[in-house]
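Q: Protein A?
A:
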Amino acid sequence: MADGRIIKALSGFYYVQTGDGVYQCKGRGVFRKKKITPLVGDFVTFDIDENDEGYITEVKPRTTELVRPPISNINQAVIVSSATMPDFSTTLLDRFLVLIEAKGIEPIIFITKIDAIEESTLTEIEKYKNEYEQIGYSVELFSAKQPSDLEKIKKYFSNHVSVIAGQSGVGKSSLLNALNPMLLLKTADISKSLGRGKHTTRHVELVEVADGLVADTPGFSALDFDDIELEDLSYCFPEMRERADQCKFRGCMHLKEPKCAVKHSVDLGEIASYRYEHYVSFAEEIQSRKPRY
């Protein structure tokens, strides 16, 4: 019997890392009966037989779990946005933030390619940086081509298990390659006609980056809110969550209700108007989705 963490899943095999090395294991049939699928990130107990083949016998309870990508026990999500190609979008950033907040995972915001923008665009992005920091998020602006910038962001990965999120072409693989040149992940070419990267990453794997583990995955392949209920949406916006108790009505949705502390804070400029507009838009999206049976 030995304990370890699954760092890769590929073709029915699970690669379990222990203090002694990495063991190739299969899952026991009992998992299929119990409908338990071992995930990358799982802490497991496994047996090694006389042929040096490993069999996972137990999957330990998970602290967090993602479906897309299928991974567990992640304690932070690094959202990579780019300042240009593709252009920075608060709408897209807020979609990622809501999805990550809904899973109880801490988000970190990275904005890359700041070496490739005009001064006026940089000023605008710095304004957004300040606004997201006031909400309570950690935000870093940097160029992955600058060694001093890379040193600055290494601290975010140390002693953490991270998943990288962000649309194609923002430079997720380039960033990981720059932090750990041993990885040589396939870097997505920006398709100039489409303005987005070609999908390059296939399986899920935890790789070592800056004294931490990072999931090199296809990332969040779907940015829909299928798993989020309307009454839970405002809790995925920290600045709304902390004001919910001040609303006149319990269970206030911050939409059309009178004496709503959230709407009052928007009027006062304490909550950014674009954040509230995104909340309303996401709420409409959730309300209009087809019921599930």
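Q: Protein B?
A:
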Amino acid sequence: MTAISYQLYGSRNWPLPDTLTMVKATGFSDVEGYGALFAQAPSLADDLAAAGLSMPTLHYGLDDLEADPQAAIDLARAVGAEAVFAPYLDADDRPTNRAGWEAFAQRLCAAGKPLQDAGLTFGWHNHDFELVDLGDGTTPLGIIAAASPDMKLELDLGWVVRAGLDPVDVIKTFGSQIHTAHIKDVAPAGDCTDEDGWADVGYGTTDWAAIHAALQAAGVTRYVVEHDNPNDHQRFASRSLATVKSF
């Protein structure tokens, strides 16, 4: 059974109470949180409970995690999360060679250990920059995954497509190390320019039937629908949930 969540980042331009009401009314039971939201919503656990929603996974900034891992653990416990993913690395902070990425992977392992010791799953959420060939057939994401068998991945399939790779091949490469998949669609070239070129799930160019089969073969049991910049988040939520349920 595959669980389906809604990434709240896509609704950052709407008030949180309205978003939670919309998400629940659309048919979601689970949501995924993100870093900026936590500082803005001190009553998040109560807000989720009032809306009848759960937050089984969340994004938590690496710098914040390193500065105060207990705060991340406390937040995860408060909202009922079982997995925490570090989501991003600013361009100026990204390593430029294999040695740099290997050092970064060890940094991730160290940052995640307190969470893992507390019984949480920890991992990395990719964009496209971790999928660039470093010149020897390896990628930063491959280095991150190889750093520890306990390092899980939240594979963002929209960014895999944007990186010019075949999502099915990438899923087969990382297999059971993929804990969660971000289900994000890419619009045809020139379309949805006011939405940064992203599309509602099922309304873009992505071959979801093949991807879904590969994810199921890899044992992935949670899908998180996401759109980085929808101009109508209710439209995105309803159309995308219908698509994922049809897989």
